[in-house]
Structure formats: C-alpha cells, structure tokens
UniProtKB/TrEMBL annotation:
Belongs to the intimin/invasin family. Transmembrane segments: none annotated. It comes from Puniceispirillum marinum (strain IMCC1322). PROSITE patterns: PROKAR_LIPOPROTEIN. One of its GO terms (cellular component) is cell outer membrane. This is Inverse autotransporter beta-domain domain-containing protein. Keywords: Signal. InterPro entries: IAT_beta, IAT_beta_sf, Intimin-Invasin_domain. Residues 1-22 form the signal peptide. It holds the Pfam family IAT_beta.
Length: 329
C-alpha cells in the first residue's frame, strides 16, 4: 500500500511539473517539494481513503496547470509586437452574424533576404459551424519593395461535424493593385451533419482582384469569381463584389460591404467590420494612412504589409443532400 501511494505521489508530481514546464512557469525542484507537501496534507485530511483523494487531487492539479499553460500560450500568440491581430464581425442577409478572431505572425527570424515566413491562425464562431483555420506561408519583396508575392497552405477543420479541408494559395500585391487565388480540396468524406443529414465538404477555387480607389489609399474595390465542386448536386458558383474602407475616425477599424452574386440562387448582401489590435495596446493606431492623398495611386513600400491577413474563405462550404451552403465570400 505504501509503495503504491508513493508511486501515485511521484507520478502525479512529475505530471504536474511537466504541465508547468510547458508554459515555463517552473524549472526547479521547489515545485515538486511544495506539491508533495500539499499531497501529504490532502491525504492526512482524507485518511479514510487517501489513495482516491490523492488521485483526485493530482488530477485537478494537472488539469489546472494544463489550462494555465494553454492560456499562457494563447495569450503569447496574440501578444507579439509584430503580430497582426484582427477581430471580424460579418453580417449577411437572412443569417446570424459570425465572429472571427485571427492572428498573423512571423516565423523564424522574420524578414531575411527579401523573404518572410509566417503563420496565420483563426477561429470562426458561427452557429453549428465553428471552424479552426491553420496556415503557413512565405512572402517575398521585390528589390525596390514595391511588390509583394506570396504562397500559402492552410488546413481547415469544422469542429462539430468533423468536416476537413486543405488549400493552397498565391498572391501578388502592390500599394494600388492585388490579385489572390486559392484552390481548396476536401479531405473528409460524407459526415453526419446538421439535423442528422449527410454532408460533404466541397473543394473549389476562387480568384480575386482588388484595386485602390483613386486618391483614397485606405479604400479598395474587390471582385471575386468562385466555384465549389458539387458531389451529387450541381456546382455552386458566382461572383462577389465589395468595397473596403478604413473608418476615418477609427483608423484601426475596416469596413467591407458587398454582394454575393450567385448564379442559381438569390443574391446575398453582406457587411464585415474588422478591428485590428495588439494586446495591451488597444488604442495604438495601426493603420495611419491618410484618408485623402495628393496622388491618385499610392506608391509605397510593401514591407509593412508582409503580415497582412491572407484573403480566403475560412468557413468550409458543404453539400447537404443536393444543396450547398456557405457560398463563397
């Protein structure tokens, strides 16, 4: 009995120490000594069943340390001087709003020899369709820094129903013009979805062109063509047109309004509100471009845009029966 009890103490102590070291909170033996004393005290207070009490105590300790580690890691992900963090609220006709929080941050040593590797992660909160998006990419600056080119790959996972998708994308941008292309591939099969119906993630593509509004460097017009490949039903395709504008009185806020023009369904109007932020520096101005410029089109370095968010469809488009939902944005 004594050896079994001692093993429980040591195993639990090591587990808690491992969970703690994952977040860098403890690196020495003081924590083990303190934990052992707490375990002994807990066992003495529950002398009728010390083993069960010890197991319960250590389990709770491990869970608490693990949650603290995850919380610290999540905070560090956003609390980075070079990270681009955004909160987006999207509203559309006949649907409840969705919320997306995202971060883009440099990997490795940052910009080197005109190239930068980056990570982009986001969480989309939408009724029954919460989705995690994880991606990495590389961006390149031209010698005069007037152009930026990039490639990226992403993995998307819809939490509730298990739909999975991957994508590969490319982009080319300067201060006045940009083009983005994304190819999506479904990597999950038929899944039991909403209301017990069978659903399948869809693959497809989108190509988007954007341009600055003359004399307004913080305003851009976008036109996108997209197509989702049907499994049993027909393809879903259409075009999206939108205007994006930085709010003059709130430079960290971006507004984007537009219309999804579906070929075989009713058009959908939408509005996105995006707020850029840094943790601990909520009031810091991130977008300080003038509202009205002296020149029709800006000609500036793209270095400051190396951590801009990749424009892509974060929600997985699915086919349910013979219809598709979540048409391209």
């Amino acid at each position: 009995m004594k050896h079994h009890y001692t093993a429980l103490v040591l195993a639990g102590s090591l587990a808690c120490a491992s969970a703690t070291s994952a977040s860098g909170i403890m690196q020495d033996t003081d924590y083990l000594k303190k934990l052992s004393a707490e375990v002994a005290k807990n066992a003495a207070e529950n002398s009728a069943n010390p083993e069960s009490s010890t197991v319960s105590f250590l389990k709770n300790e491990v869970l608490q340390k693990t949650f603290r580690s995850l919380e610290t890691g999540f905070s560090n992900m956003f609390d980075n001087a070079d990270a681009n963090n955004e909160l987006t609220i999207e509203g559309a006709d006949s649907s409840k709003p969705s919320f997306t929080i995202s971060t883009v941050r440099a990997l490795g040593g940052g910009l080197s020899n005109g190239k930068l590797d980056f990570f982009q992660g986001s969480f989309l909160a939408k009724k029954n369709r919460d989705t995690v998006n994880l991606g990495v990419g590389r961006r390149f600056l031209s010698d005069d820094e007037s152009w930026m080119y990039g490639i990226n790959v992403f993995y998307d996972h819809e939490i509730k129903f298990g739909h999975q998708r991957a994508s590969i994308g490319g982009e080319m941008k300067n201060a006045a013009f940009e083009i983005t292309a994304n190819k999506y591939v479904a990597i999950s099969g038929w899944e039991k979805g909403l209301n017990g119906t069978q659903e399948h993630a869809l693959g497809g593509y989108e190509i988007e062109i954007g341009g600055q509004v003359p004399y307004i460097p913080t305003a851009r017009i976008f036109a996108k063509s997209w197509n989702w490949d049907g499994k049993k039903g027909a393809d879903t395709k259409g075009k999206t047109y939108s205007l994006q504008l930085a709010a003059p009185i709130m430079p960290n806020m971006m507004l984007e309004a537009g219309r999804k023009d579906l070929d075989n369904a009713k058009d959908i109007d939408f509005v996105n509100v995006t707020y850029k932020f840094k943790l601990g520096e909520i009031d810091k101005v991130i977008n300080d471009a003038p509202f009205i410029a002296d020149e029709a089109f800006a000609s500036t370095s793209m270095k400051a845009h190396l951590l801009d968010k990749v424009r892509r469809k974060n929600q997985i488009v699915v086919e349910s029966g013979f219809s598709s939902s979540a048409g391209g944005v």
